[in-house]
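Example (one chain per record):
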Amino acid sequence: MGPGTPAERAAAQLQMLRIAAVPVPVLAAVLELLAPLLSDADPATRTAAGDVLARLLAAIEASAPAQ
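Predicted structure:
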């Protein structure tokens, strides 16, 4: 694998992702699994987790039906 933490590598891969079709409940589950990384001891992991969570939240909000 390349340099950096697993979270940094995952964040770098997700940064290149432009389109993905996944059910909203799957995104919500991923949010739950990633949330603990926001308090990780490694600042790079915290930053990467925050970036990924922000993108996932934006995707969930964008998928909500207009009212």
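Caption: The CA atoms of residues 36 and 49 lie 9 Å apart.
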